Amino acid sequence: MGKVTGFMEYERLEEGYKPVPERLKHYKEFVVGLDEGQSKVQAARCMDCGTPFCNSGCPVNNIIPDFNDLVYQGDWKNAIAVLHSTNNFPEFTGRICPAPCEAACTLNVNDDAVGIKSIEHAIIDRAWTEGWVQPQPARIKTGKKVAVVGSGPAGMAAAQQLARAGHDVTLFEKNDRIGGLLRYGIPDFKMEKSHIDRRVEQMKAEGVVFRTGVLVGALPKDSKVTNWAKETVSAEQLQKDFDAVLLTGGSEQSRDLPVPGRDLDGIHFAMEFLPQQNKVNAGDKLKGQLRADGKHVIVIGGGDTGSDCVGTSNRHGAVSVTQFEVMPQPPEQENKPLVWPYWPLKLRTSSSHEEGCTREFAISTKAFKGEKGKVTGLTTVHVEMKDGKLVEIPGTEKEYKADLVLLAMGFVNPVATVLDAFGVDKDARGNAKATTDFTGGYATNVSKVFAAGDMRRGQSLVVWAIREGRQAARSVDEFLMGFSDLPR
Ligand SMILES: Cc1cc2nc3c(=O)[nH]c(=O)nc-3n(C[C@H](O)[C@H](O)[C@H](O)COP(=O)(O)OP(=O)(O)OC[C@H]3O[C@@H](n4cnc5c(N)ncnc54)[C@H](O)[C@@H]3O)c2cc1C
Ligand code: SF4
């Protein structure tokens, strides 16, 4: 433990944001991280608990008290070694993780949690600057070939672990760039894409072969999921050419809103809108980009994806941005003794909300209205919870003006045709069916085919995807070699 009395002496210090008018002019990151001295003070707040709840609250089980102590001691090189021992990509989680570890921190019971995420962010950024992040190629090759399908955080983490275990790994991705939703969901202003690119370079040096623009299996004809594939490879071919196949294709099927008027122009899934801006930021030319300039925008869905639509619409120059959430407004402060150390339900105001947005809660959309085939507005009604069901409140119907409606109500499951191509069984929610058992976990019903990440667990978080990718890599390694030295 760095400083015994640190938690009593120092207040929590949040990372800063650049001013709204400045950051709305661009798509770059705007978080101002902690400097060395501030990180040391924040790390000194850690109590090095005998039972560190932060560690079990973190899906990758980061060894948080240890890296806090190392930062306090000024030993940043060992701090990154500790961080990398449980997390392949702390620069992703240090930027965009909601930090369940902080909700679980013991200090959070009656004080402000240790700023674990900002310390993680500082450690990994320093490690890159100092040149401490280097390729770790395997010393002995096994001669076994593994195909990983889908290059989001689950696929990337699995591919890196498997390559380090000595296997020949090929990572297939239907889109034109690596990264999954990190690349084509999460806006650049939350995470710039150079962070993915330098990991790709590291992984290439470790022997991973990247094949972008290759669709494995098939998509339905009318599918709206991102797909810039120029080539298709069949499931049978992959099963023939590789000793094991790991499916990490995400949960891409967006939840729809089949109310009257849904077929009007100007109503789009968030995942039609957000990827286009990321492509433009990357220098691609797009014909007829979906844009919010000069429009009244309604975002339906109150989560992260909706918030990203708000931030992007404001950067486009929308006239107004309104976000709907069907659930009632949660309390501003959680009842800590009741919910700690679990993730609390409370009102979360993102940096995108702060940039300008009207938020409506307990509201449901009954119909879209339009003129000449184009959306012009929508009709809503307020709802309340009765006997566990949301019911309409009579007399609360309202009309909203809208030139662009973005549907951000989450994802129902993976695209079924990809799983069907391999004959993989699905669970009740339509995800790939596989357990997370210590032995044999992540294996599907099909011989030598495994599944992990959102494709197995359903729509989730980057940190869970990294965990599943790491654990699935160990399972695949065990399957191929009869044992595994990879951490779980
Ligand atoms: C807009 C948005 C914002 C988000 N913000 C956050 C956030 O702030 N913090 C957070 O923790 N989480 C966030 N999430 C959730 C997070 O991004 C996902 O949980 C995570 O990326 C899942 O990782 P994955 O590797 O399982 O799948 P994905 O990231 O979805 O990657 C799957 C990849 O597989 C590819 N693929 C699919 N099928 C095939 C096929 N047949 N052949 C070849 N390739 C295929 C896809 O093209 C995709 O690139 C957000 C999600 C969205 C949509
Ligand atoms: S729970 Fe909080 S105070 Fe305790 S070890 Fe973890 S970070 Fe430190």
TrEMBL record:
Keyword Heme among UniProt keywords: no
Pfam families: Fer4_20, Pyr_redox_2
Annotated GO biological process: glutamate biosynthetic process
Enzyme Commission number(s): 1.4.1.13
GO molecular function: glutamate synthase (NADPH) activity; iron-sulfur cluster binding; oxidoreductase activity, acting on the CH-NH2 group of donors, NAD or NADP as acceptor
Record has Isomerase as a keyword: no
Coiled coil: none
Top EC category: oxidoreductase
Alphabetical UniProt keywords: Amino-acid biosynthesis, Glutamate biosynthesis, Oxidoreductase
Limits of the 4Fe-4S ferredoxin-type domain: 37-68
Annotated pathway: Amino-acid biosynthesis
Protein name as annotated: Glutamate synthase subunit beta
Organism, scientific name: Hydrogenophaga taeniospiralis CCUG 15921
Lineage: Bacteria, Pseudomonadati, Pseudomonadota, Betaproteobacteria, Burkholderiales
Gene behind the chain: gltD
